[in-house]
């Protein structure tokens, strides 16, 4: 079992309104750089990897999507995202993780999830982003309902990787 | 003349659990949250699934389908875990996050 990094920084955000992923990312980077630079002012972690997921414009059956509704389990969803991020970061030796996830009604094209990981090398950063994304899609209590033609259908499972 | 205070008969909420349903499961049952007395000891989520008739039909014979996960006090748990008074037990349909 990997030893957790005592300086690990985990940020989890559940957002009820549309967000701009690049702005959120920039704010996260500023917050990290304020307390994670060495005496020479250089960032300590050399690698950073990101994933942005957006709502696709069609339903699972191919019909035009009006809106995606995202239900969650308040309290458990935040705690579970944090636990998954901590475990994933510990497995890969990552130093900082950001997970932002929309809830509520989300329009096609809007960002639904943002995962960012800082690590010392590209391998851990890239692997941790991919693994954490899969973890949260299957193990954090979120449920999607697709609205099309005025009726809603709960999504039965995740799309293939 | 001294009248004793009237105490309305009410269920003993300290011997109850809070049951929560989400998404398709909530809509199928027609409710999302209720307090359920712990009638027998021990009682598990699997017992409550049968007692509350949460099945979709007779096909599963009252057993929790493998696609449904259980959370006790907002942490994943096995269906047979004994419940304690005051616990919050949630039945979670297949997760579709991200």
Automatic annotation (TrEMBL), chain A:
UniProt cross-references to SUPFAM superfamilies, sorted A to Z: Molybdopterin synthase subunit MoaE
Gene3D superfamilies: Molybdopterin biosynthesis MoaE subunit
Superkingdom of origin organism: Bacteria
Protein name: Molybdenum cofactor biosynthesis protein MoaE
CDD domains: MoaE
InterPro entries referenced in this protein's UniProt entry, alphabetically: MoaE_sf, Mopterin_biosynth_MoaE
């Amino acid at each position: 079992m990997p030893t957790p990094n005592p300086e690990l920084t985990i940020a989890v955000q559940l957002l009820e309104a549309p967000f701009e992923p690049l702005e959120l990312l920039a704010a996260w980077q500023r917050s990290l750089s304020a307390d994670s630079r060495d005496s020479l002012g250089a960032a300590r972690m050399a690698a950073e990897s990101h994933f942005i997921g957006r709502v696709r414009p069609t339903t699972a059956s191919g019909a035009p999507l009006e809106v995606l509704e995202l239900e969650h389990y308040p309290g458990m969803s935040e705690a579970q995202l944090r636990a998954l991020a901590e475990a994933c970061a510990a497995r890969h030796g990552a130093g900082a993780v950001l997970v932002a996830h929309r809830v509520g009604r989300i329009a096609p094209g809007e960002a639904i999830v943002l995962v960012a990981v800082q690590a010392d090398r590209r391998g851990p950063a890239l692997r941790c982003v991919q693994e954490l994304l899969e973890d949260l899609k299957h193990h954090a209590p979120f449920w999607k309902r697709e609205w099309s033609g005025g009726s809603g259908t709960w999504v039965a499972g995740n799309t293939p990787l | 003349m001294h009248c004793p205070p009237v105490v309305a008969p009410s269920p003993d909420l300290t011997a109850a659990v809070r049951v929560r349903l989400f998404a398709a499961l909530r809509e199928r049952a027609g409710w999302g949250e209720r307090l359920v007395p712990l009638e027998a000891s021990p009682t598990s989520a699997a017992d409550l699934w049968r007692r509350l008739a949460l099945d979709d039909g007779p096909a599963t014979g009252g057993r929790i389908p493998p696609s449904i996960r259980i959370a006790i006090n907002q942490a994943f748990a096995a269906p047979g875990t004994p419940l304690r008074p005051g616990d919050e037990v949630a039945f979670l349909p297949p997760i579709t996050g991200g």
